[in-house]
Amino acid sequence: xxxxxxxxxxxxxxxxxxxxxxxxxxxxxxxxxxxxxxxxxxxxxxxxxxxxxxxxxxxxxxxxxxxxxxxxxxxxxxxxxxxxxxxxxxxxxxxxxxxxxxxxxxxxxxxxxxxxxxxxxxxxxxxxxxxxxxxxxxxxxxxxxxxxxxxxxxxxxxxxxxxxxxxxxxxxxxxxxxxxxxxxxxxxxxxxxxxxxxxxxxxxxxxxxxxxxxxxxxxxxxxxxxxxx
Length: 229
Fold this sequence. Notes:
Helices cover about 45% and strands about 10% of the residues. It is built from ten helices and six strands, in the order E-H-H-H-H-H-E-H-E-H-H-E-H-E-E-H. One of its GO terms (molecular function) is 5'-nucleotidase activity.
């Protein structure tokens, strides 16, 4: 019987891409990036998003550091768009890191689903997000009351999919594997990480990509959880 539900935060509850797009649109105009040779805001954001996702995948696996991720995502984007990376305005990255976590776009149904599940289960967050931004997101969106524990990889010292973070999360929650389940969007970090550790996992798949053979359970919308729990 499931008693504990562990959620990923970014791309699962907090709509990372939508919040990033809003922030980057504001900063594009604030810093007049069009004058630097980036005439299309949407193209700039699309290329950034692709680079950011790629770098986060490397970060999950411990291949790069937080500092490399933050320094590379915009410099790579500038280079791909034919603009010298040293033209990135001073303060742009810092403003992005400061403003984006304060955005409040959640995936549809998030609060309704969390309120429902909280009545029946103990809820927790396991995030690979950086500590300061994760705590800001949780506070800005009033998510803290739903969760008994917020486990952040920077505090633990390892990222999902490392089994050590799942072990730590269960100990922190006072939970057993057989009474726990993980919900997240990352196949490697959330789903395979949890399954390899020995707990069930639900793949949150809002983009409706092809379901991999090793994924037993997926949902396209968070409200589907109310039908199963």
